[in-house]
Design goal:
2 domains, D-Maltodextrin-Binding Protein, domain 2, alpha/beta, about 20% strand, about 325 residues, globular, three-stranded antiparallel β-sheet, 11 helices, 11 strands, six-stranded mixed β-sheet
């Protein structure tokens, strides 16, 4: 063979083993890291999706719950895994949004990961105690500004989405309220219902039973459209807050450097899972709307979300390292 022909053949020869590996993928079970303890909504979403996903791929997903540090443990483990498609994680708004925006982490939320796709998202709601007289966002703002004593709002913890979303509201509305952080959403909701706090931005799934019982009033939902579960409640944008579309979202990612052929196989099959006619119903218990995205679309979404919360944390002087 002439030298010129050898040079032409070399790239194909190098590429062949990679293509063969991608075509054989997956040949063993896939570890799927979930950055929270078992039993919650995040965990449920992972198990529902990976059960179907595994059937399409012909391999089992082994769900591995690694909670701790707002997702830092899970992210660090994933980022340092071999980029072979056998370790993936369920990224969500904390791991690739609020946590890297509010504290120093030992991973780069963008450079250390390969986006695979969005799974879905659920809105947060601006909720008030039933005794608060406001029926609209405008009335609530007026009520807060005219209150003779400072009002307070609860959150699931400092730096959580419930905290950051209310800080975004305070920034855009000009109101001031005292932040009361709790260890999780349940105690925060309990104190809102009891009147110890007056407002908060809980996720829709956690708030829905209390809204329907009348003990909590929903003034608006985040997101670009109204929720099908609360169709009478306007969006924050309808209430005059342009671009107020903060969401509790869930997606899938792997370590940086995943081969493109493997990423495509994972993405194509994930989208197929999400487009199944009954998937929306299966995720409705967590009020999650299915949001299929390509890897690029999902990567762009994560980039924008990190930028949003980083800018807000800087403007509101929110740093969990201090």
């Amino acid at each position: 063979m002439k030298r010129r022909d050898l040079l032409k053949a070399a790239p194909a020869a190098l590429l062949a083993p990679r293509l063969a590996r991608a075509q054989a993928y997956p040949s063993r079970p896939i570890r799927y890291i979930v950055p929270v303890a078992p039993g919650g909504g995040n965990d449920m979403i992972a198990r529902v999706v990976t059960e179907r996903w595994g059937k399409l791929l012909g391999q089992t997903f082994v769900v591995d719950n690694l909670g701790g540090g707002g997702g830092v443990v899970a992210c660090s483990t994933t980022a340092h895994s071999a980029p072979d498609g056998y370790t993936l994680m369920q990224s969500y708004v904390a791991t690739h949004g609020t946590t890297p925006a509010t504290r120093k982490v030992n991973y780069d939320a963008l450079k250390d990961f390969t986006p695979i796709g969005m799974i879905g998202a659920t809105p947060n709601i601006l909720a008030v105690n039933a005794n608060v007289p406001a029926k609209t966002v405008a009335e609530f703002i007026d009520y807060v500004k005219k209150s003779p004593k400072p009002l307070s709002y609860g959150s699931a913890g400092a730096g959580s989405l419930t905290h950051m979303t209310m800080e975004l509201f305070k920034q855009q509305s000009g109101v001031d309220m005292v932040h009361v952080p709790y260890r999780g959403i349940a105690p925060a909701i309990n104190d809102l219902l009891g009147g110890q706090t007056q407002a908060m931005f809980p996720g829709l799934a956690a708030a829905l039973p209390h809204v329907r019982s009348g003990r909590m009033r929903a003034l608006a939902v985040t997101g670009k459209k109204r929720s099908s579960q609360l169709p009478e409640v306007p969006t924050m944008e309808e209430a005059g807050f342009k671009g107020f579309d903060a969401m509790q979202w869930y997606g899938s990612a792997g370590p940086a450097g995943l081969p493109p052929a493997i990423v495509k196989r994972l993405s194509d099959t994930l989208i197929e899972v999400l487009k199944a006619p009954d998937m929306a119903e299966k995720l409705s218990s967590e009020a999650v709307d299915v949001w299929p995205m390509t890897p690029k679309e999902f990567g762009d979404y994560m980039r924008a979300d990190i930028a949003r919360w980083t800018a807000l944390a800087k403007a509101r002087h929110i740093s969990l390292d201090e």
